[in-house]
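Below is a filled-in request sheet from our internal design queue. Each sheet records the structural input a requester submitted and the sequence that came back. We keep these sheets so that new team members can see what a complete request looks like end to end.

REQUESTER: design group, bay 2
PRIORITY: normal
MODE: inverse folding
CHAIN LENGTH: 395
BACKBONE (tokenized):
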């Protein structure tokens, strides 16, 4: 599975770099030294990108850091430059007549005559000007957006406040507050300080309940246990709870589950607990099915009192399609990162029904947080990190 994933990465990255070489090197230079230098640089960057992805799966955490910053930042610049250049293909086509409108000078007596050259002959100077202009726009946009996006991704998560009405919620629980955080993604670029900042933010919210909806780590307990330990400082009136995300399975979920429980969080594995007048349930991530540990809605929700509202923790929004068939009132999810880098959100929509925020599926309500960390490039464009405080209201 991993080798197939890397093969796809190499193929896609190779095609993207071929396009970038065409637009940024071949079209903007004449044959000679600068074109050779540009070609070597593009080849080196094309190797760096998949090497970085492979390193995050094969090398120890300390070694990953050597490639993570340059490799992942280039992935962001690469994707954004490709996106801008793709958009600029439209004006390039529109300006093609201008590029081909070349004047030819024909010798004559007593003065040379200026006539139009045959149609279809491009003016090299105009073609070069257009190509270089597009390259400059794409380069500046990609580098600038990556710089701003890095500051956003590495900065503190914003706090989003949302009221959600549950028809079955007892009036005595009106105003019950749930802190929702997901996709913390501790790894080569995010460590203990990141965890502590998230814990401090949640504790200031004075929530009744804390839910951590998967994808805490990208590495083993030995590598990241100390980075995750500040979670033991989470404070809430009715406890803190966790469900697995897909990255827990990539990182060794058998070790991480007892480790997370040692921090004082209750890991809900296809099970539920009663909290005052509602049921809080949690199901494993869908990726767990590949490890013999998949989601089981029947087990998590069996024999419950249908008069009580049930809030479900499920890492991926797509799980709402099962949740609505089991009478779930509210599902809390993450996974999408809000798209992380625009316009990735359009690609995420091919896999998930909701990218971020609130939606309704029949009688089941869904809320998706954008997550507090990042995966891959330390960049967020159009999708800032967040922690959500949901206030439940009775009907």
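RETURNED SEQUENCE:
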């Amino acid at each position: 599975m991993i080798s197939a994933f890397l093969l796809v990465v190499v193929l896609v990255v190779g095609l993207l770099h071929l396009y970038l070489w065409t637009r940024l090197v071949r079209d903007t230079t004449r044959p000679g030294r600068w074109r050779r230098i540009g070609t070597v640089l593009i080849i080196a960057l094309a190797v760096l990108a998949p090497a970085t992805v492979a390193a995050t799966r094969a090398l120890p955490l300390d070694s990953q850091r050597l490639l993570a910053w340059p490799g992942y930042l280039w992935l962001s610049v690469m994707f954004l430059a490709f996106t801008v250049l793709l958009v600029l293909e439209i004006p390039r086509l529109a300006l093609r007549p201008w590029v081909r409108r070349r004047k030819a000078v024909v010798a004559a007596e007593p003065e040379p005559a200026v006539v139009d050259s045959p149609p279809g002959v491009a003016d090299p100077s105009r073609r070069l000007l257009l190509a270089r202009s597009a390259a400059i726009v794409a380069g500046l946009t990609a580098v600038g957006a990556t710089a701003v996006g890095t500051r956003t991704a590495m900065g503190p998560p914003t706090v989003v406040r949302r009221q959600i009405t549950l028809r079955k919620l007892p009036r005595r629980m009106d105003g019950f507050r749930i802190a929702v955080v997901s996709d913390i993604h501790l790894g080569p670029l995010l460590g203990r300080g990141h965890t502590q900042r998230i814990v401090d933010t949640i504790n200031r919210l004075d929530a009744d309940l804390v839910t951590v909806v998967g994808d805490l780590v990208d590495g083993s307990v030995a590598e990241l246990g100390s980075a995750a330990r500040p979670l033991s400082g989470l404070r809430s009136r009715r406890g803190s709870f966790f469900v697995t995300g897909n990255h827990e399975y990539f990182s060794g979920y058998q070790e991480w589950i007892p480790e997370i429980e040692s921090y004082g969080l209750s890991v809900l594995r296809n099970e539920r607990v009663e909290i005052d007048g509602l049921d809080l349930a949690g199901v494993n991530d869908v990726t767990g099915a590949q490890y013999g540990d998949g989601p089981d809605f029947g087990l998590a929700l069996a024999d419950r009192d249908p008069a009580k509202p049930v809030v479900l923790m499920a890492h991926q929004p797509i799980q709402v399609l099962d949740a609505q068939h089991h009478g779930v009132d509210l599902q809390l999810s993450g996974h999408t990162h809000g798209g992380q880098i625009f316009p990735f959100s359009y690609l995420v929509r091919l896999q998930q029904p909701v990218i971020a925020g609130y939606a309704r599926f029949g009688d089941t309500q869904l809320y998706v947080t954008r997550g507090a960390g990042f995966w891959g490039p330390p960049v967020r464009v159009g999708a800032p990190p967040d922690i959500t405080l949901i206030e439940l209201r009775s009907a």
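SHEET NOTES:
- Residues 2-151 form one domain.
- Residues 100 and 120 are 6 Å apart (CA to CA).
FILED BY: M.R.
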